[in-house]
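Trying the structure run again after the queue cleared.
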Amino acid sequence: MKRPVLILANNSDGLYGFRKELLEQLVEKEHIFASVPNNGYFQELQEIGCNVIETEVDRRGINPITDIKLFFCYFKIIKQCNPKMVITYTIKPNIYGGLACRLLRVPYAANITGLGTAFQRRGVLRYLVTGMYRSALKKAKVVFFENAGNMETLLKSRVVQREQCKLLPGAGVNLKHFRLSQYPQECGMIRFLFIGRVMAEKGIDELFAAMKRLRQAGISCCLDVLGGYEENYVQEIEACTAQGWLNFHGYQKDVRPFIAQAHCFVLPSWHEGMANTNLECAAMGRPLITSRIHGCMEAVVEGTSGLLCEPKNANSLYEAMERFCRIPHEQRALMGKMGRQHMEDLFDRQKVVADTMKGLGL
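Done. Tokens:
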């Protein structure tokens, strides 16, 4: 029997949403197993042709007992599947899946989709995670990175060797799914949009503070928020909604209608691998305001397709949003078109899939 390719990821939603085209290519050549939590996309993965193994992953928890259980779970799955290669995505699958592959001497490829909170501060946790990454990635056939900043961080920490590394523009964006949309007509109200998990690290506090200042300055604007709660912002969102400038829509399976009615997408994130929401909104012709960090700033041609702000800086974000509000309507629409061109030039998912397949050697 032909040995399969096994994929380990922490979210079936993300695996399907951002890697669907890659999975379709892999299924044409290989027998594919996918070990993921059931986040509501099992059927879609199965329809592509993946054999799905339900595996619970505590994405943000740091309970050592839970993580040890995940390691042994991956060890068992890999041993039973006997794959020709394992492909891992996100921190815990990269670490615990990588360690299991090393012990079982199975070839594996890791995808660094972001370094997470541990690398944003110095201390014991960063030291521990760095050591675990170093051990887990030592024998990886290839380590894919979504931005140059993450790659240089792990190279400087001697986690990986340069010959292992391959830099990709994130997962890219499906330009056919996220088509260029006509820019909204001028209506006297600037409609900002945020898509992401509602949590501090996505810059939600800075965004709310900037919006309040814009309103106090007499600027007519509102904010649509799409995404589930990752942290407790219920009271804050209810208060902002009562003030009349925030519209909270929760998690949405199809974000395109909301992008189409927005004038500008705002993502003041603290850290990213490559922010897919930036790519999707730019592909649909919407200007971006996002953080001047690797994983965000690559999506923007500053001053041409969007504006950059400093991370963790509500004043810098306010200045960027206020500047955008002063830009004439026709220029905003042109910024959106230039953003679409930037996506076509550098972030076409078909090109990313081809480069990934080449890096995998499949």
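The mean pLDDT is 94. Worth checking whether this holds up in the mutant runs.
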